[in-house]
Design a protein that fits this description.
15 strands, 4-stranded mixed β-sheet, BirA Bifunctional Protein, domain 2, 14 helices, binds adenosine-5'-triphosphate, alpha/beta, binds magnesium ion, about 425 residues, 8-stranded mixed β-sheet, single chain
Length: about 425
């Protein structure tokens, strides 16, 4: 017979199961708990957007838009092309405009889910990966930047992630950016012959992004480029000071990284990354900044915004292994004829919020051993004694189960 070939999993796409899934779920659960402490609402966003949502907001020359997007032609009844979201921010800003969410501003929102980027897969770098995302829309004051950073810091601490540094920079206001940009161009022009091909293109289109380059040829030139500090307007300097003062007041440690620029065009003022040296080249676990120009550039009413995104997989790799959830009660059927009573008990346990599993198949003699292997906190077995059915209860870990509540339900089932 011809061998049937199994279609392969696509490169860069993951099946998440077992320990990896528990890590993933713990990150998302912790995020959802903490965002409530900060009074952020949750939104669910579509995977597909019109390509223009990303190309206009992320910049045609950004790595993501120029080479990493999954874009395809939709059906005949629809216009343009569609793109699978490579991030959340642009789509949330599109939603703000199309749904008139300005009326709800200030809007504090989180979301999470899959995002897609066609880049070279490696450890900590996938083509479908997952992000946590937090945004504040409609707040021009630095208090929003501070709140988002404090939230991020608490999230990382409560996840038990140590050895991360908050690197902080300012990109200034429009006037600052313009003056700094001119100085950067002058500097890079002097070293044009040493720059990578990619950076030569950046020099034409978005010179600031050369500072962000990972190409070793660009690094010395990027590192010796002029700092923004000399070009900061008074307002921009005051904004940055308010952010750092807020962080200090909240007890969040930070360091200045004057080379830090976000790759995208619409960032203003605050830019930040939480970085670890634990994940090699994939060391950025959470990153974001202020994007006051974005909503306007999508054709909406000028609306300030600030936000961040974090890779769920990268966070998952850094947390201590989460405990497996312990089965509270194993219901074991050893005596023939007690199946119905066992099913009744099982339903009663679950209806009362007690997790339970039934062991009623395979060799009756082996059922108890199989139940014990599952590691329950308690067993309830229907046994046969001298032709009568008796129910034996055994508590293995009294802290993990309310044995009295189980006993009450068992006596109900026995009647
Ligand atoms: P990098 O510099 O690692 O490419 P980035 O600047 O492209 O990151 P962002 O667009 O800021 O990343 O996305 C936010 C977070 O999403 C990152 O800090 C990282 O944790 C995660 N991330 C980005 N790309 C990937 C990927 N391909 N696979 C897994 N996680 C990723
Ligand atoms: Mg990237």
């Amino acid at each position: 017979m011809a061998r049937i070939e199994t279609p392969a999993r696509i490169r860069g796409f993951q099946d998440i199961f077992g320990e990896d899934q528990r890590r993933f779920a713990h990150v998302v659960d912790t995020f959802d708990r903490i965002r409530r402490l900060y009074c952020f609402q949750r939104a669910e966003m579509p995977v597909l957007e019109s390509t223009a949502v990303f190309s206009r907001s992320m910049g045609e020359t950004s790595d993501v838009v120029s080479k990493e997007m999954y874009t395809f032609a939709p059906g005949e009844d629809e216009d343009g092309t569609f793109t699978m979201r490579p991030e959340f921010t642009a789509g949330i800003c599109r939603a703000l405009i199309t749904n008139g969410w300005q009326q709800h501003t200030p809007l504090k929102l989180v979301t999470s889910g899959a995002v897609f980027r066609r880049e070279r897969p490696q450890k900590g770098r996938y083509r479908q990966f997952h992000q946590l995302d937090a945004e504040v829309l409609g707040v021009a004051e630095p208090s929003a930047d501070v709140e988002l950073l404090v939230l991020a810091d608490q999230l990382l601490r409560e996840l038990g992630i140590e050895d991360v540094t908050l690197q902080l920079n300012t990109l200034g206001d429009a006037e600052t950016r313009e003056a700094w940009r001119t100085a950067l161009v002058a500097h890079f022009e002097q070293h044009k012959d040493q720059l990578s091909e990619d950076s030569l293109v950046r020099l034409e289109k978005n010179p600031m992004r050369i500072l962000d380059s990972k190409d070793p040829r660009d690094r010395p030139i990027a590192d010796s480029a002029p700092d923004i500090d000399a070009y900061l307007t008074e307002e921009a300097a005051a904004f940055f000071k308010a952010v750092t003062d807020g962080l200090d007041a909240a007890g969040v440690k930070w360091t200045r990284n004057s080379r830090l620029v976000r790759g995208l065009d619409y960032y203003r003022h605050t830019a930040f990354e939480f970085v670890t040296d634990k994940l090699g080249a994939q060391g950025t676990v959470l990153a974001g900044g202020r994007y006051d120009g974005l909503v306007g550039s999508l054709g909406g009413p000028e609306t300030p915004g600030v936000g961040w995104a974090a890779g769920i997989e990268r966070l998952g790799m850094m947390i201590p292994e989460p405990a497996t959830e312990r089965m509270q009660v194993a219901v074991v059927v050893e005596a023939a004829g007690s199946e119905a009573a066992a099913i009744g008990l099982l339903a009663a346990l679950r209806n009362n919020g007690i997790s339970a599993e039934l062991f009623a198949s395979g060799s009756p003699k082996k059922r108890y051993d199989r139940a014990m292997k599952a590691g329950p906190a308690m067993t309830v077995s229907f046994q046969s004694r001298d032709g009568e059915v008796s129910i034996a209860q055994r508590v293995i870990d009294g802290d993990a189960v309310d044995a009295d509540a189980v006993a009450t339900l068992v006596s109900g089932a026995a009647r």
